Amino acid sequence: MGTSHSEAAARPHGAxxxxxxxxxxxxxxxxxxxxxxxxxxxxxxxxxxAVGAQTGKAAVYRRWSSKEDLVADALMTGLPDLREAADxxxxxxxxxxxxxxxRAAMYSTPGIALRAVLHECDHxxxxxxxxxxxxxxxxxxxxxxxxxVERGIERGDVREDAADGMVYDVVPAMMMYRAKVGGSExxxxxxxxxxxxxxxxxxxxQAAAPQAGDASGGLAPRGATGR
Length: 227
Hints:
about 230 residues; 10 helices; disordered C terminus
């Protein structure tokens, strides 16, 4: 139902319409993520979030008693959907597209907010967010990598014993290291280089065993390389 003439007349020009329920909660959560990305964990205040959401401080405190509670909910609702890895026909292309999705998630507003929490909050607060990080970021990323690797094994372009937990840690570890320690974003060329020089050699099928009189010493690849 549209706004009546009397309601519009009663509201000052330029004033924000009164919001309630899920609409207001969404505005508060989005403001919390924006605050984390601009002023960081240490600079975030409930008052600042209220200003960003264009609401009163009491509206924030009615829903969240502390900034830890607020940030936990904001991160949980803002993290991207990482439920499925699309099939692009080869393990190399699957990895390339997956890494681009992970990069987009890392540099999204929720991703930047999450890094602010990891970099700035103290040990006690970090423990509070550990489960959220594991369930919302690490486990979904590893699950998608496992899906890509197992699909490559079915195609025959990935070695059978590549479905290993340590293999699934390589991409997230490298990408998080660059973001957290190096402070720089992965370019498309760097992602391709990581896949070609690290992941494809790690995943490709093993070379055939050397045969008698084989001058190559068995170094020639057997079957597809995954490229």
